[in-house]
């Protein structure tokens, strides 16, 4: 794998963003809307609940972390979809570019775009709703790392599914974060779920992030064993997703399915 080929993928995405403000706006617009909406909801709950629970720290913090995860995943999938929509995907592999270099290019692109969204969320949540991230302490870095790694894994897996099942499958990609959120316990403890949902929850790295976040807010400490389990699972899923993408690409080549991504099929 060579770094300049990976950076070429990133450069293409940079040119797309530079040439189209419509592509730049979603990087921060939707996360800003989410933070403002949930910020006022949590402020209202603090005013009417009369409890000692600070909903800004618990709920708005959870929204921020989950939005970060969603943006990481979508950063990978959107870069891939740009190539699918323009029928440019097959052109890449007429060059010496390898699948690992292509996927790494998508990952680097996602790092940049998700960081833009993260900065916007942090600034809004801190300046407008006074959410202090010092409440979470050093584990916040581990929380973000778990969500980032799992977001990358899920994005690569989703791309492989689109590659295997066709461009029409992209409409099944967008709801994935919403489908996972009830299992991950974003807004409530996993213990409230039925047993079968808890079993699935323990296979999802974000579960350990939000359980740890609630433990810190409640005045306790995060379980390092659980946090390492989340990190380990996320890394495992990245390797599995990468292997699945490479195998799917080879299958598409062998069966001729790759031809549906050619510009020649536009007509």
Structure description:
With 267 residues, the protein is mostly helical. The chain has one domain. Helices cover 72% and strands 0% of the residues. It has eleven helices and no strands. The longest helix is centred in the last third of the chain and has 32 residues. The protein is globular. 37% of the residues are buried. The model has no long low-confidence stretch (mean pLDDT 85).
Total DSSP helices = 11
Q: Estimate nothing, just give the exact number of structural domains.
A: 1
Uncertain parts? none
**Could you tell me the radius of gyration in angstroms?**
20 Å
Strand content: under 5%
Distance between the termini: 35 Å
Count of distinct strands:
0
SSE ordering: HHHHHHHHHHH
Q: Based on helices, strands and strand pairing, what is the structural class?
A: mainly alpha
Shape: globular
Quick rundown:
The chain has 267 residues and is mostly helical.
SSE diagram, text form:
Layout lengths: L2 H16 L2 H4 L4 H21 L5 H31 L3 H4 L6 H29 L11 H27 L10 H9 L10 H7 L3 H13 L6 H32 L12
Helix pairs in contact: 1-6, 3-4, 3-6, 4-6, 4-7, 4-10, 7-10, 7-11, 10-11
Describe this protein with a few key phrases.
267 residues, single chain, 11 helices, mainly alpha, 72% helix
